[in-house]
Amino acid sequence: MCKFYVILLSALLLVGCVSQPLPDKNEANLIAANNYQGLTEYYKSQLKTSPDDKALMAKLTGAYFKANDLESARFYTQHLLTSGYDSADFLYLAGNVYMASEQYPESIDAFEQAHNKGYDESDLNVSLGIVYSNLSEFEKAQDQFNQARLKGHNDIAVKNNLAVIYIAKNQPEQAINILTPIYQAYPDNDRVRMNLAVALIKSEDYATAHQLLKNYYSDDELITLMRSIKAL
To answer: Once rounded to an integer, what is the mean pLDDT over residues 10-39?
Structure first.
């Protein structure tokens, strides 16, 4: 049950973007096409002639991460950290790699190092908030999300994540109050719709939750989903 809860919580939260250095023209073409597998090959070919270029290796790490090759991203992350590479952008990336690997203490350490090196973007606060949420340290998580909000982070992402905290704290009515106006303004936002439905199920408003989800799930799927959420 605990493992399922962590997986569900992670799925409901919205993560910030991972920063990368500005690309050259060849990189830009691959990035524009979201061809992260192509990017990994591009960076590896460059590493053959510049094997000691740690900034290039950090780019390769980011490409592996975006290509969902978490094992490779971890391998290069650990190598770069061991070798002492400590650019702020890379440390933020390292935090996200560890977060995706559910290595939360290592993730917090990397994020804090990134902050100490001058990385002060709102997405760092969002990422830290997600880590603390997965550790059930909800007050710390809420503080990080509010810090992101004060820095001008996307309101939908911040409010969505705050609502997830209220769901996790078994305060679904608070989540409903946050998410309902967002859903009314953005009814096509899948994540907001799902989180609102989860809050409604937790508050035992099954009819409204069914209305939100009926076009996306079969009746059997909805029954299974509602049972799983009620059991959390």
So the answer is: 72
Local structure of residue 19 (DSSP, 8 states): P
> What number of residues does the chain have?
232
| SS3 track for 106-166 | HHHHHHHHHHHCCCCCHHHHHHHHHHHHHCCCHHHHHHHHHHHHHCCCCHHHHHHHHHHHH
Q: Which two tokens stand for residue 165?
A: 């905290």
Question: How far apart, in whole angstroms, are the C-alpha atoms of residue 82 and residue 217?
Answer: 47
Give tens-digit pLDDT for 80-97: 999 999 999 999 999 999
CA angle 143, 200, 173 (to 5 degrees): 45
Tokens of 76: 């290069």
pTM over 0.90: no
Domains recognised in the chain with CATH numbers = 2-19+86-230 (1.25.40.10)
Angle, vertex CA 154, rays to CA 153 and CA 160, nearest 5? 110
CA nearest to 19, candidates 90, 99, 77? 90
| Residue partners of 76: CB distance under 8 A and separation at least 6 | 57, 58, 60, 61, 64
